[in-house]
Amino acid sequence: MTNIFRHERKIFVLFVVAAIIIFSGLGFRDAWPPDEPRFALVAKEMVTSGQWLIPMRGGEIYPDKPPVFMWGIALFYVLTGSLSVAMLLPNAIASLITLTVTYRLSRALADERTAMLSMLLLLLSPQFLIQAKFAQIDALVACFIWVGIYGFIRHFCIAESWRCYFIAWGAMGLGIITKGVGFLPIFILVPLSFLAFKKQLPTTRWKKRALLGPLIMLSVVLVWLGPVLYLGAYQQDPKIQQYLSNILLKQTAQRYANAWHHIEPWYYYIFEVIPLFWFPVLVVLVFKSKNIKRVLNDNPAYLALTVWAILVVAFFSFSPGKRGVYVLPALPAVAMISGLLLSRSGISKAIGNFARSVTLVISLVVFITGTVLLLNEKTASSLILRFHSDLSTITKLGAICLLIGMMGLVTQFLNLSRHLVLWLVIITVIPSTMGVWILNEIRTPSQLLVRAQTQMSILSTSIGNMDVGIVDVKEQYLLYSPFPLAHFGYHTEKERENGTAWAWLKARPARFLLAPKDYLFQCVDLEKALSLGFAHRDEWLLISSDAAYATCKLPSDAPVYR
């Protein structure tokens, strides 16, 4: 009874620590580029327009992703009234669910100790933590994928459960309308069917009713896709047809087979992503490599998870377009395998010393960085110039680094488990609260937009009738602008955008245009432009209508969005 109570207390503490780490910093910062302002803007427009079916940004259809992630942000925006809180909640909740599923599946397949170690290894993994604390789409889709894996493993490896089996297919449907790769749990049916054929798993769980699974997945997808297909195919809406072509073909099959950006070599994940971002689980695999074959042979479900993780990494490696976050769904499976190895063979002194060495080096580096930022004027000056910041911001960051480094060094005197947990809390909670609060002004264009508003009020006598446009638009400018902004499309060719912006600027007085200096805007007298300073490494110009030339030969037929 005492052991059970001790285990329950440890589990409770671990979940509380995980929640503190994941949820800390909510509301301390706004959406940061490159991806967060896009999703936040789409969600905000859903709430303000009342149109949730088709994702829109700045009045223009956003064609790259299905809407589920933005629905999550929009829902929490309605509930909380704070976009800075709402944008982080879907991933925070999804990551806590992923940890819970990892714990429950590990406990069902092995034991309590294995479950706790698997959960801790996942929580220590940089890729998991980064995605849990940022408003990108991958943590949510990874959660749906992992729920799918949980359902299949429960049904085929633990105890027959058609409820879990059908939940797996439903989760895949949600994953697909979150991001196209939500179908990845299907890959685990390959090793599971092979193991059943080899009589290492029960064969009685493959029945005719299993064919209902794909229908459930399709039904979930059609909840959203059905109305969109109706608008495109039946009502022949050309914008919806273009959206469907993009989301169903260009952003899926074409992006996988013939990617046009993020081009990386086939070994990108193996040598550049996994060693750094899966570091803790990889260390265990290396130190316990002699036991891997024996442990996997004794545990068919873990063998299936191993094959599935390899298939996921291979699947993304075959595509020329790669981003590190793509392989995130496989990380919980590898954490489970590492947790089992660690549980079966014990935490050796070598692993303990290595873990302490890594945390010691990181703490020392952070401590030295803080010291340099506070005492080295040359370094501080170069950072001020590079990031267009000020001395007080650099000083505050230096003090925070010094605090984190000192506290990290103090934890070295605790036993290994307490040291790792407390060190992880320090290294994540302080930066995600105090750190992001200080960096927020640098990471958003709010100050630049306020300067623009001040200058326009000086130049114009009729603020109420003032129009402002922007070229080379990024979502953060639309999201943080204190005044309405016109833009000319995210995918408009530069010459066409330039000509349309000139025509719009010249059409009436009291119009202003925001443009990056390196955009090299044509058909206006740039000598009359006013520099607003820097934001996101670009110097921005304010161009008034009286700077527009009388004529311009560039095409001017692009749409204008507000």
From TrEMBL:
It is a multi-pass membrane protein. Residues 64-224 form the Glycosyltransferase RgtA/B/C/D-like domain. It is found in: Cell membrane. It comes from the Bacteria. InterPro entries: LipidA_mod_glycosyltrf_83, RgtA/B/C-like. The chain crosses the membrane at residues 12-32, 68-93, 137-153, 165-190, 211-233, 266-287, 299-318, 324-342, 354-374, 394-414, 421-439. One of its GO terms (molecular function) is transferase activity. It holds the Pfam family PMT_2. The keyword Transferase applies. Keywords: Cell membrane, Glycosyltransferase, Membrane, Transferase, Transmembrane, Transmembrane helix. The keyword Amino-acid biosynthesis does not apply. Coiled coil: none annotated. PANTHER family: MANNOSYLTRANSFERASE YKCB-RELATED (PTHR33908), UNDECAPRENYL PHOSPHATE-ALPHA-4-AMINO-4-DEOXY-L-ARABINOSE ARABINOSYL TRANSFERASE (PTHR33908:SF3). This is Glycosyl transferase, family 39. It comes from Paraglaciecola agarilytica NO2.
